[in-house]
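Wait, can you check?
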Amino acid sequence: MPLLEKITIADFRNIRLQELSFSPNLNCISGNNGEGKTNLLDAIYYLSMTKSAFSSSDRYNFRYGTSSFSICGTYRMQNSLESRFSIQVDASGEKKVRRDDKQYGKVSAHIGVLPVVMVSPEDISLVSESGEERRRFVNSVLSQMDREYLSALQQYNRLLQQRNRMLKDASVDRDLLSVFDSRMQAYALPVYEARKKFVENIRPVVSGYYGMLSGGSEQVDVRYRSDMEKGGLQELLASSFEKDRLLKYTTCGIQRDDLEFTMDGWPIRKCGSQGQQKSFLVSLKFAQYEIMKRTCGFAPMLLLDDVFDKLDMNRISNLLSMVSSSDFGQIFITDSNKVRMAGVVDRITDDRAYFETEAGEFRLSGDPGEDLPEGD
């Protein structure tokens, strides 16, 4: 599995210039809120996914007063050889992604080379926001495991944009539209089937992790909802033509797919407490990790941002037992309370590194547990 040995970050968020070397096992980053902990994890995520885990636009990723940023990482790959990956982005939107100084022909060709799973407080949007957030989650997982899925999704979205432009014309050529419908059907089907299979695979894993994390106090489930459950896309598009023409956009298709999260049969966003929702989201991401590990044949990198927030000590203890008892790979954890983090991490492994951050500057620190009074 790829292990991040060293990263160099320039002008990303509040990080001016930083070079850090990491433990192949567990890396703990502490600091007050707003100092840069999450930005470091997002830089690592960006190096894997070629985009931020949080910002849809790169203009929010430039350090204030700058017009470009770069991230470079040295990884130990599965064959034990080192590879160097770099990403440069400027204000024009141009993005250059390189492996060993050779630029990719397409940025998307890099997706899946460095598999990653990130757990953060922002995951609450998966429960509270629209289906777009949940589709983005599914796409981020499947794109890392299946290049054909990513290609089909990109082609479908391109045709969808063209179809929507045609629907805005005063006179819509229905014959030409039917040609687009046929082509969209060809790309929609593999996307639909991949999403359906993914949800079937992840459902029992989410339930199992939630049971371990919560002590089995509630039952959770994940369901897939798609227009294509009703039939082929081409037929659905033909039947919705008049509605589409009036509204001037495509009203059915895989762009409307959604996931349904429930607890004891009820929508978790309505009946779940903050702690229960957080436990569910952690379980969902750990299940993502498990599915990706099975498919890739090795453990992805795991980024845990402020994961202890809103979890009681029993659930924190259960969470860390899950991490320590499974074949997890390289892990990065952030927490504002470095003593709390050390108290938990030191029970898992001696192979860990501690970092502290202030105003976007990071330094390797000693074991915070050493500062505790004897007996604590």
About this structure: The mean pLDDT is 91. DSSP finds eleven helices and 15 strands in the chain.
